[in-house]
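Weekly puzzle thread! Below is a chain. First person to post its structure in token form gets bragging rights.
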Amino acid sequence: MVGTVIQEKTGTIKIKSDFFNERIQIKSIIFDESNPLNISLILENLAGKVVVSNSNLTPEVIINPADIFSVVDLSGSMRCDVSGGHNNQNDCEVNYGGIWLGPLNASKDANLELSNILFSEENKNQLGFVAYNAGVISSYSLDLTNETGLISSMINSWWADGSTCLCCGVNSAAARFGHQSSSEISKTMIVMSDGQTGVSCPAQGNNNPILDAIQSACDAMADLPNLTIHSVGLGENVDNSTLIEIAACGGGNYYDATNINDLIDAYTIIAQEIQTTSTTVHSFENLRIVFLNETSFYQIDLSDLPNVLETLSYDFDLSGHLIGPIIRIEIYPLFISGTGEETVGPLLDYWEEN
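Winning reply:
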């Protein structure tokens, strides 16, 4: 602009309220001498911890629903923490130095903790179980639900016996997601095993239990949007290479629970990650600038905001919108929800002609 008058805080510029983790304020205002309705507004974003004051408005927090299937190994080896499905407590503890029902009880505790975290606050999460040994165990499996009493009852009913069909569990969980969840909802599959998979699946057709287990995860990822597959290996006899491949194909992580105590930690980490990724905090991404003269006002919304420690200049031509000199400029945070509803926050800063 030619022939400008720079008002570097010569008017009264005050911050009326502090908002969010950084604050945007008016640094300076430039009026065109030939046309005072041509205005350059310079805004700066200051760093630092800021406390909300004198406002009932807080950042919008949206808790997105998540659907989770825990795929649980209930093969015979889950009754004893050493290799093999020992059939009685004496055989496990005396002859093999194991802990009777240690893995099974740890799995119950881990899944109970998973449920506790997923339903620790108001949300629309759903949790289900696919229990498997040589095949899917329907009586120990549960469709997606948010009924915590039903979830706890199912977990406490589990018993372990038989061999291991890892692909059976993954295929069943994928099919249940397809029928019970929707495409836009975040989905997590937690695949747990304590041993070697020994049963193949016709759906994959490799006639190889290991290849079928890995491909079942890849097939699920190809068929289901918004899916993540984590895998958990329990104990020293687990086929961790297969579980690592399952997690890699599923875009998730592999958790190596070398002992029964680590299992609860693994499920806790996964549950906390689900809670974190399903919670969206919306701060303001728009500003409303209000220009006032003696009798009226005109407002403009901005979406291009300065980053922390950045200063940006904005040019406005208010000709045709206002008549007479501008005596006050106000800036507000503007929230726009997913449905387009607007909510104006507290006054961030203003300039006033002295």
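Puzzle host: Confirmed. Bonus trivia for everyone else. Residues 260-277 form the longest helix (18 residues).
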